[in-house]
Amino acid sequence: MRKLISTGSPFEKTAGYSRAVVQGDWCFVSGTTGYDYATMTMPETVEEQTRNCLATIAKALRDGGFDMADVVRAHYYITDQAYVDAVFPILGEVFGDIRPAATMIVCQLNKPEMKIEIEVTALRRTA
Question: Could you tell me which Pfam families the record lists for this protein (predicted)?
């Protein structure tokens, strides 16, 4: 059974995507930037943006019946190599014990204020 998860972000409707898609025991979370969706503002720092990304991802996973411990794959996209040392400790706080397969890429993102984008894939754990 397929379930679509939304944050209510206007970008989802405009661009035609879901924040996450649950298919069976899998949850695929779209690339998530650092917007605060309550205020539709973007923090200035990559650290704050990273925390917002992770909070949005955690909520999408919960809405789909998953949690962060179910994450098996993570892709991190940053706009400046200098951000690596700033975001690693934050990612380590969340994923340090989970240790998903991960990739970090330095690239341009869709808007100049975006400094990081994170996407994850989760597989529901069985007891």
Answer: Ribonuc_L-PSP (PF01042)
